[in-house]
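User: Just a sanity check before I run the rest of the batch. Below are the structure tokens for the first item. I only need the designed sequence back.
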């Protein structure tokens, strides 16, 4: 029978190539470079440390714990720093939310932005869940090397999708890439076949996807701190549904009229700069010194460098010239009232004013009590923000990936400070030698906000030893991270 214009041709296609490439990578690619695993270990340390520090903030912890108070799940997933034992879906949310709460974990910046270590929420939750189930049956569970492998893979999927594809320009939030990457790796971790993993990843693309509304003026708010947790929990839920027999949707991206490309990506197909490997983990950007949106990291370094020269002359400042790149202008440059911590840690001017005044920037500086300091807004009003086209070009150059900012302070008497310019923040791959010791110190400091000295040292001892960590059972590691009373 011939197809007419009024009849859909109901021939089920092969899976979209983009979905197949993601799944083939997860199942077939072998990561054999020891340096990549070493970076993944540091990434694990840094990510967990950021989550532990967030437990000091009630706005984060109020979202954590079982949905029904008092619920304890047999062999439930542990949430680091707590005594919760919950199902893997809620535990993935909690781990993901605490990791991202303070905007202090790693960053990937290209056509799209994001934080690939957000995927650890799903990875850790599923690894603990699967391992406890295996050990209860008398078989070995996963090791922490399996966790590091899944981290490398999730970083790569999220980061490579972000290299050439700007989801933010379509109004979509980068956590959709967390959901896709997490779904791919955890479906395999839970024993899914290639076909089941294809099915699960198709569901991740079919979801309506988060808007970026909560990251931008005038709506910036705390959802940006739990959105990644929401994405990781959704990934685990979708994976479990498929493993229980739910079907997939082969042309989730390419279906005419109804697919992701036509509905949510302006009819454009994805572009790719490189095949999946371990490029993203090797080149990941750490936030080491300051809990600040990454485009502002070098601006904060500039402000810290100028602190001694300006701290006693704040009232004499005429103007502060901030020179930056286009992405920073588009995401974090804003004037007017700032309504909450999430609003402040995405304001370039706020993140410069505080270190000019204090010589540093810590998470507590975003809280309402400190934000009431009058001098902050006085300095913000004196800031002139300009784009340097060369900075913007270097930001997009794949061989450079600079995040240059410069600051020059002008005084009422006509004098001015030196113009301080920083291209690469301390967490950039080009500064690994200087950055890793500071990252390790950051990890210790974050652990010490929550654990006893003895428990802190136990965690550090295992995390400092690559071989010991990789061979450690996931269940033992998660037990180590439980908060002892």
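Assistant: Here's the designed sequence for the first item:
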């Amino acid at each position: 029978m011939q197809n007419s214009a009024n009849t859909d041709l109901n021939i089920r296609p092969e899976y979209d190539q983009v979905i197949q490439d993601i799944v083939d990578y997860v199942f077939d690619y072998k990561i054999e470079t020891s340096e990549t695993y070493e970076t993944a270990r540091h990434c694990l340390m840094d990510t967990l440390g950021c989550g532990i520090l967030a437990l000091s903030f009630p706005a984060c912890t109020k979202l954590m714990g079982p949905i029904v108070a008092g619920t304890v799940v047999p062999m439930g997933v542990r949430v680091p720093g707590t005594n919760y034992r919950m199902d893997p879906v809620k535990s993935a949310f909690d781990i993901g939310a605490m990791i991202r709460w303070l905007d202090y974990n790693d960053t990937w910046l290209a056509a799209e932005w994001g934080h690939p270590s957000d995927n650890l929420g799903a990875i850790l939750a599923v690894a603990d869940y699967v391992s406890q189930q295996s050990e209860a049956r008398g078989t070995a569970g996963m090791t922490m090397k399996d966790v590091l492998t899944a981290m490398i893979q999730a970083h790569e999927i999220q980061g490579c999708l972000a290299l050439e594809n700007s989801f933010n320009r379509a109004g979509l939030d980068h956590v959709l890439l967390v959901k896709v990457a997490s779904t791919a790796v955890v479906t395999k971790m839970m024993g899914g076949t290639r076909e089941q993993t294809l099915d699960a990843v198709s569901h991740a693309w079919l979801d309506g996807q988060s808007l970026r509304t909560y990251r931008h003026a005038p709506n910036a708010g705390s959802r940006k701190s739990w959105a990644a947790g929401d994405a990781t929990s959704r990934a685990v839920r979708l994976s479990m549904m498929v493993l229980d027999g739910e079907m997939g949707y082969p042309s989730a991206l390419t279906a005419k009229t109804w697919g992701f490309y036509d509905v949510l990506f302006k009819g454009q197909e994805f572009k790719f700069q490189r095949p999946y490997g371990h490029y993203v983990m090797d080149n990941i950007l750490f936030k080491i010194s300051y809990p600040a949106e990454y485009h502002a990291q070098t601006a904060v370094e500039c402000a810290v460098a100028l602190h001694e020269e300006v701290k006693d002359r704040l009232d004499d400042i005429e103007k502060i010239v901030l020179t930056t790149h286009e992405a920073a202008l588009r995401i974090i440059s804003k004037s007017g009232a700032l309504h909450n911590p999430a609003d402040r840690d995405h304001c370039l001017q706020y993140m410069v004013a505080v270190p000019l005044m204090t010589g540093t920037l810590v998470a507590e500086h975003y809280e309402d009590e400190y934000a009431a300091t009058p001098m902050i807004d006085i300095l913000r009003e004196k800031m002139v923000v300009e784009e340097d086209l060369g900075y913007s070009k270097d930001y997009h150059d794949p061989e450079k990936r600079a995040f240059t900012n410069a600051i020059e302070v002008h005084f009422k008497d006509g004098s001015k400070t030196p113009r301080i310019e920083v291209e690469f923040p301390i967490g950039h791959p080009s500064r690994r030698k200087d950055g890793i010791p500071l990252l390790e110190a950051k990890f210790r400091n974050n652990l010490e906000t929550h654990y006893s000295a003895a428990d802190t040292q136990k965690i550090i001892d295992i995390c400092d030893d690559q071989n010991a960590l990789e061979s450690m059972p996931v269940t033992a590691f998660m037990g180590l991270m439980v908060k002892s009373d």
